[in-house]
Amino acid sequence: MSPSAPLVSDTHPGVGVGVGVLREDDAPELRVFVEDQRVRNLAPATIHARVRVVRLLAEWFGRPLVEAKAADLRGFVAWRRPGLAEASQVSEIASLKVFYGVLVERELVPSNPADGLHGWRVPVTKRPISLGRVQELIDEAGQVYRPPTDSRVALALRDRACLEFNNSRHA
Fold first, then answer.
1. Dist CA 62 CA 64 (whole Å)
2. Cα–Cα distance between 129 and 163 in angstroms, integer?
3. φ, ψ dihedrals at 116, nearest 5°
4. Which of 44, 111, 115 is nearest to 77 (CA)?
5. Residue 37 or residue 165, greater confidence
6. pLDDT tens string 58-69
7. HSE-up of 98 (CA within 13 Å, CB side)?
8. b/e string for 22-51 if b means 16 or more Cβ within 10 A?
9. Which of 71, 78, 142, 161 is the most buried (most CB within 10 A)?
10. CA 139, CA 133: separation in Å to the nearest integer?
11. Predicted model pTM
12. Measured distance CA(99)–CA(128) in Å, rounded
């Protein structure tokens, strides 16, 4: 590949015509990362998305990315959290893990500071079910049961009562 050849196509659907992956001011480690992703034959959209996350980190961090520690990356993830869907958080964290994984493979950093990162899960609030409601559901299943035609409905209601009771105990 010639030095002037782009590492990734200069045009990409959804990004805009003429928007290249690399810029002149990009850090050497980002260039190494893009080359690695290109060699692995990743889709241009994937490379663009990962580079975008790494650039956001670089702008936020303000120092060479090879100096980042796990605490720095946790701070970045916390800063990015507001307004991001959980899937986006997971995607960005995956991008950081891949980026630092490449730097570890190339021996540019001793270990991957993103290894311990995880998304922010919002706990689902479960409505507790009372024992009285469990009994109502079981009674309802008993009233419907008329063998053999209605056995599936009765079993389904019984199973529902058991599941709701079990889920409410672990809320």
1. 7
2. 10
3. -90, 5
4. 115
5. 37
6. 999 999 999 999
7. 20
8. beeebeebbebbbbbbbeeebebeebbbbb
9. 161
10. 10
11. 0.60
12. 43
